[in-house]
Each structure stands twice: as structure tokens, then as C-alpha cells.
Amino acid sequence: MVEDLLKNYENVCTLRVRMPISSDLSNPRNFITKIARYEKVVNIPNSMTILDELLPISIEMAKRNLTGIWNFTNPGVVSHNEILEMYREYIDPNFTWTNFTLEEQAKVIIAPRSNNELDATKLKQEFPELLSIKDSLIEHVFKPNRKTPVA
Question: What is the pTM of this model?
């Protein structure tokens, strides 16, 4: 694995990005835009990377000459259903979706999917202001794109 080779170099910083999300909900390649268009979704929690928050941190990491392997995700996990509930709350109050099981999903996708939680403790210790995944989604993605009235 490339990580095994690179960890031998003292001047390398490897950022493990997981399911990157940006605030650009008009982009068809955005994770949220994708799952909002799926006919069915699997409700599994995952670690994710909110680019609007973490990309500036990557610049700061370079300035600090940080090296090594970093799980470059917001702390915690969030499920597809939780993201779609936020989408409904902030973007489209009439939005609905249907769930299916991992077994049902496996029958209709070409490439298998992985679901996992990465430990972001090291990143959080270096950047204590880093928001949890759910808070970051609201602050950096859904609030700036809000289309529903504020209650």
C-alpha cells in the first residue's frame, strides 16, 4: 500500500479523506446531491470530510509542517438518513426517500461500497475548533444553502 511506503519519509503528510462533501449543492458530483437523487439509500453511519471546513485546515497543516498519516474527517459519524433529514429541514420540506438493505444494495451497484468510522482524535487535538460531522454539515453546507423559512 502507498501509505506503508510514504510513512517512512519524515516530510510527508498523508490526509485520509472520506466521502468528501462541499457546500456546492448544485454540483451533480456532490455526495449530498447524489444521494438526494438516488431512488433508495442505505442507512449506515460513516465518517465524512466537509471540504469547506477541512480544506483551510489542510493549508494550516502545511504551514505548521505537520507530517504523518491523518484521518482527515470531521469527528463522529453521520448516516445517509440523517443527512437527508437535514436536507429536508433546510432545503426541501417535501423531500422523501426510501431505504434499502446492504443486501438489496449489493444487487444493484457495480462496485461494492465500504462503510466505516475513522478516528479523528489526532486531528481534533491539533485543531480543537474542528466541528463534529453533524455540526459541520449544518454550519458549512445546509445553513448557507437554506431554502426553507427559519422557524
Answer: 0.90
